[in-house]
TrEMBL record, chains A, B:
<keyword id="KW-0456">Lyase</keyword>
<dbReference type="GO" id="GO:0006084">
    <property type="term" value="P:acetyl-CoA metabolic process"/>
</dbReference>
<dbReference type="InterPro" id="IPR037171">
    <property type="entry name" value="NagB/RpiA_transferase-like"/>
</dbReference>
<protein>
    <submittedName>
        <fullName>Citrate lyase alpha chain</fullName>
    </submittedName>
</protein>
<dbReference type="InterPro" id="IPR006472">
    <property type="entry name" value="Citrate_lyase_asu"/>
</dbReference>
<dbReference type="Pfam" id="PF04223">
    <property type="entry name" value="CitF"/>
</dbReference>
<dbReference type="GO" id="GO:0008814">
    <property type="term" value="F:citrate CoA-transferase activity"/>
</dbReference>
<dbReference type="GO" id="GO:0005737">
    <property type="term" value="C:cytoplasm"/>
</dbReference>
<dbReference type="GO" id="GO:0016829">
    <property type="term" value="F:lyase activity"/>
</dbReference>
<dbReference type="GO" id="GO:0009346">
    <property type="term" value="C:ATP-independent citrate lyase complex"/>
</dbReference>
Length: 396, 396
């Protein structure tokens, strides 16, 4: 029996947030470079030990090639019983199954599970219950100390020798590093992994050097084709069109649809179709939006360029057009998971939303939604930002 | 006798950094605007009480008109025995003398003292010793919890209704808000004071909404003429030219003067003259710099424009040309006091400096320097970033 103490509101209310990074800092002295000769060297230097918690982000999505490299070395070093806290699990995390079976990993925290890992977990390969939180909930857990990350392994598109890093520059661009910013801020040790070391000082500074312990250069951090797709959908399924039409019907008949409204949607065909229809309505009624929030897609950057929306607040850039936009457009802003959706801050961005469009696997007639588990009992989805957006927005 | 426990390295080494902002957050609920109807209302809402610590920044320099407005109301509310932690004290803080005499303020922490306030303190109007730290030292003290700020009052050039703020937009521009960023990050309550409320979401986001409790609009936050001067010096004193010549003589004869070197200097005539001469040497030897650090002046932005330096890392924009540059040039970066000079981070920017040029009131033949106290025993200067730069740079 695993003794899981659930989220204790009272305790969190009165506790202080902890930023544990300074513990041994003065002993490090002054360094002129943080580049480790190898990933193995960096892992040894962090002091990673049995039973600790490590973290990853999922900005490189299915194209991530760092998670497996890191776990292979941890296994080689015979470190066991680790908890992995990830902003989400993608196909790139299927390799975790092997390391769970070997006892290297015995705990998982994330926002969802799918694919082979989801199946394996659903079938019970992990003895401890997986802890799944929303994107904002994960930021809250890390900031409050509920999730204490000993070592964060953060893949970045570029870094200088001191650890100033971003997702903008290099062969493996991802745009916003929003989810990783919280790990960088609060983890005890931070290791950056990149295939692109640039001249000091690197900018924009998404992750600042003052939060970084080690920088490791590897041959390849990802498969660019799987990191972001340039897919622009000219055709939609009939179902997607119908859903989009219903979304727009609701929006245009609610009082929040006026100048300065705000909107969040997802990545699927229905979302893309609804954006096209929303644009049509906005032009027709001469209405402009103040901001679009969350994971950003190319269709939203078009509206930014055309002046139909004032700002994009981007926690994750979903496609190549979004990545290009965040590089070039000063009104396309990178935000952290905490800024995005952490309800335990002094008001996060989701709390300013008018419209949140969310997908669900099952919805009952009282609007209770399941976004996680298939009808067959297998975990096949992600909580994502759903509860945060549903709480924050005027119309969900 | 005031029992002053001096900076305890051992204790700081092993303690955890504390970010105390979440204490009562969930009770606040979801807010659609943080604008208080008045400064008085905001101060009451913060729960400010006798014996607490409040903070100010000095980015508005001699032109700041918020400090006096705030202290007047605090006095009216009969709150006593406060400690003021400020990033520095300027002429705008001369008004503190009255409130010290009234017992409203009984403790001061800053980086220096000068003018009337310096004289009054030197003559003993404050019973507790003033605590003066370097700019990096103040950031360290705040992050470690050694200085616990109950309420930070931060003047900003612009803010939206949720507290996304910067020093870039409005009538009272100051450019970088570097020193204030640490207060915003760690103070228990944060009150922004501005004369310029802009549409949500404001950007660039120097201070993010998730760190802000209240936003107050006042008629005027400052006297633009005293905030930043547009002064470009065509003439220099003979003494300044001689000092500048000596600076350049040293620089060009040290091995660090090569492509990619870095440099920090101050605001005086000698600094401006030395920059002109440095530029001459750089052109002559075809040498380009990687970054200039610290308080940034117009002459440095010229070198940025001309491609002679790659980046400016700006904790405080000293003149109008610097303010214009940070607004427009993506290679002119706003950095926090912690990024700038906090030695208890995982390496701050001063640690990457090749050359640090610092002024001093007195230097002995063993290079021990006094930057604080005049020969008459009166405090008339500021520690500023001096110890941080001296420790970090290869040549001081």
């Amino acid at each position: 029996n695993y003794n899981y103490s659930s989220y204790d509101t009272e305790k969190t209310n009165t506790s202080k947030r902890i930023c544990p990074q300074s513990k041994n800092l003065p002993n490090e002295g002054k360094r002129n470079s943080k580049i480790s000769i190898s990933l193995e060297e960096a892992i040894i230097q962090t002091g990673l030990k049995d039973g600790m918690t490590i973290s990853f982000h999922h900005h490189f999505r299915h194209g991530d090639q760092t998670v497996e490299q890191i776990l292979k070395i941890i296994d080689k070093l015979k470190i066991k019983n680790l908890t992995v806290s990830a902003s989400s699990f993608t196909n790139a995390h299927d390799c975790l199954i092997d390391y769970i079976n070997k006892g290297v990993i015995t705990g998982l925290e994330g926002s969802g599970l799918r694919g082979k890992l989801g199946d394996a977990i659903s079938e019970g390969i992990l003895t401890k219950p997986v802890i799944l939180r929303s994107h904002g909930g994960r930021a809250r857990a890390i900031e409050s100390g509920e999730t204490y990350i000993n070592v964060a392994f953060l893949a970045v598109a570029s870094s200088d020798e001191m650890g100033n890093a971003n997702g903008y520059i290099g062969l493996s661009c991802v745009g916003s590093l929003g989810y990783a910013l919280v790990d960088a801020q609060y983890a005890e040790k931070v290791v950056l992994i990149t295939d692109n070391i640039v001249l000091y000082p690197n900018s924009p500074i998404s992750i600042p050097q003052i939060k970084v312990d080690y920088v490791v250069k590897v041959d390849k951090i990802g498969d660019a084709l799987k990191i972001a797709s340039g897919e622009i959908r000219p055709f939609f399924q009939y179902k997607e069109i119908k859903i989009a039409q219903n979304i727009i019907k609701i929006i245009k008949n609610t009082p929040y649809f006026k100048n300065g409204f705000s909107f969040q949607t997802g990545t699927g065909g229905a979302s893309q179709a609804s954006l096209l229809m929303l644009k049509e309505q906005m032009l027709k009624q001469n209405i402009k939006a103040s901001f679009f929030l969350g994971g950003i897609i190319g269709a939203q950057t078009e509206l930014l360029k055309e002046g139909l929306v004032q700002k994009l607040l981007d926690v994750q850039s979903f496609d190549l057009a979004a990545i290009e936009s965040i590089k070039q457009n000063i009104n396309h802003l990178e935000i952290s998971a905490s800024f995005y959706a952490n309800a335990h801050t002094k008001d996060c961005a989701t709390n300013k939303l008018d419209y949140g469009v969310l997908s669900a696997l099952e919805v009952d007639i009282n609007f209770n939604s399941n976004v996680l588990t298939g009808a067959n009992g297998y975990i096949r989805g992600a909580i994502g930002g759903h509860p945060d957006v549903a709480y924050g927005s005027e119309v969900t």
